[in-house]
User: Fold this.
Amino acid sequence: MRAVAATPGLIGLFSGHDHGATWCYKWDRLVPGMTVAGTGLNLCFGQHSGYGGYGNWIRGARQLRLSADALRRRRWEADTWIRTEKGGVVGRVSLNATYGKDWYPATPNEKTYCPTCNYTVITPGPRRR
Assistant:
């Protein structure tokens, strides 16, 4: 995290995994249990993106919109949202100077179902010969 905090011009760090959570957080202070203070970097998590893993949350992928003009003016901001497999948009936020003070609607806990998926298998192990 020290290298991330020290990277100039970094607007955000974006990650996704196999959970239903969709969130962003402005890391702008020392968080309990950490030794590095945040510098205002936006940390964002994107919800379940594929059919591996566990859970039946709707699949989606985080999308970003950056303005070339804003970047030229050194305004480090971006709009981000999750586009779901059904085409909807959830978790839309503007990562700008007022992020964390603005109000955004809650992301619905929508589920999706794959009739051929086995949701009980988290990660299958290698086959032994």
User: Anything to note?
Assistant: Helices lie at 2-5, 68-72. The chain has two helices and six strands.
